[in-house]
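input
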Amino acid sequence: MIKNKDIQIRDPFVFTDVNSGKYYLFGSTDKNIWGKGVGFDYYVGKDLEHWEGPFQAFRPNERFFSEDNFWAPEVHEYQGKYYMFATFMSKQSRIRGTAILVADKLTGPYQPHSNGPVTPNDWQCLDGTLYVDQDGIPWMIFCHEWVQVGDGEICAIQLANDLKESVGEPQKLFNASNAPWPTSFQHERFPNQKNYVTDGPYIYQTNDNDLLLLWASFVDNVYAQGIARSLTGKITGPWEHEKIPIYQQDGGHGMIFKTFEGKSILTLHAPNKTPNERPIFIDIVEQDGKLIVQK
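output
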């Protein structure tokens, strides 16, 4: 068994599997996370502290379109199969985007499903996540990166029902600077403007059916986890931002899942420094329509 303190992982994603009564922890697991990609691993446990693994979830073959920047895998059950949304950098174009993999079992092995990224071909993108709306229409929420646009964006694009490709044009939900809490930084690529990061969007529906969007950015160069709320209950918004982050101790790229006992848990990685990043699990409750961290 291995404990959380011994697991180097970024962008943790937990799948609560009622069939096995176990939690499956996926994430960016390459030791050299900023370089050549090995693939994605997962861990299996019953108490969110002790895990078995790592086990292989995905390994690319020589024909795969990417060989580095394997980031932020999420696994979603959809129409009887398991789909992994993950970020990859193209060998040819050197553009990052989210592609979709598929498996018959939660444990994989995952194989390419989409024909490369389903994000726009000329956009630098990352961190795609699945959301199926009240009409059963699948959407992908993703980041249009600050490295291309300066003021990072969170966008949504409709997917085909088989999740093989996107449909129509992406819609911008908001810029990072629309929220009151992120702070800007200067960069030589955009020397005459303020730059803001958007990372790790994840959709969460409250007990009152409010639609929330978790996403990460920086406060004075410290990684932080924020929350936005759709004023219409629809993925297209408009979105209203919480005034302060729910977590700002150099951790982020979070998601929320339910335990087998019905508790809500926020998981994210902290600190945001390689190779020290570890999975963090935080109890949260809904209070007056907001998510509150349990001390």
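quick obs: Helices lie at 146-149.
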